[in-house]
Amino acid sequence: VIFNSLQIISGQEQDFREHPGYSQFLIYGIFFKFFAFFDNSIISSVDQLLHAKNINESLGKLFIIARFANAIFLIITVIFFSKICQLFEIKSELILFGAISLAISKTGIDNLTILRADIIAITFMLGSIYYILSFIKQEQKIYKLLISSFFLVLSLLAKIQIIILLIFVLALLPFFIKNE
Fold first, then answer.
1. Which of 29, 62, 101, 123 is 20 to 30 A from residue 45's alpha carbon, by CA?
2. Among 140, 123, 142, 141, which Cα is nearest to 84's?
3. CB atoms < 10 A from the CB of 82, how many?
4. What would the pLDDT profile of 12-27 be if each residue is shown by its tens digit?
């Protein structure tokens, strides 16, 4: 994952094309570049990795940065979850319980330690769902559909299996529109 992220930000084609984690690689690469701006010892290209004196230390730093990125995405996931619940006027105590449960669940904790595309795909999908529901339930502004579409594309680029959740949401969409 780290090497593929370095390939993307170095302008190279990613290895393992069967792994559709392009959004994941791009986001990690952006984080690598950002932190490398402040710390010259952080590797931000494949060439730097190949010429590094201490590869283990360099990869360790990149791994920590990627874990930090996952933590940011877990927080954003909880925020989108809460916003979606607010659209359905769920009690704030239940939203808080759900948000905390989501954050401290086994999957939530695993996403802080394992570099997988799941949390990124779920975050973008929840963002897409939020903007679709916001479009339907609140004000119907075109920018909400554009943001929703953008998040949907990033979600699918992160993990193609997220399409299962998309099918579920699309099946429920007529019920949301009917109630409005």
1. 123
2. 123
3. 17
4. 877 766 667 888 999 9
Q: What pLDDT, in 10s, does the model give residues 161-172?
A: 888 888 887 787
Q: In angstroms, what CA-CA distances link 16 with 10, 84, 157?
A: 16, 35, 14
**Tokens found for residue 71:** 């933590």
The amino acid at residue 97 is F
Residue type for position 56: N
Distances, alpha carbon 20 to alpha carbons 47, 57, 121, 142, in Å: 23, 27, 11, 29
Task: Give dist(CA 138, CA 152) in Å, integer.
Answer: 20
- CA 2 vs CA 5, 76, 103, 110, 164: distances in Å: 5, 22, 24, 17, 27
Instruction: Give the tokens for residue 114.
Output: 């394992």
Q: Cα–Cα distance between 104 and 151 in angstroms, integer?
A: 24
What is the DSSP code (8-state) at residue 14? P
Tokens of 31: 């984080």
Distance of alpha carbon 32 from alpha carbon 52, whole angstroms? 15
Task: Catalogue the E-assigned strands of the chain.
Answer: none
Give the pair of three-digit tokens for residue 5.
Answer: 């992220």
Of how many residues is the chain composed? 180
Compute CA 111 distance to the chain's CA centroid, rounded to the nearest angstrom.
11
- Residue 86 to residues 15, 66, 123, 144: CA-CA distances in angstroms? 41, 30, 17, 17
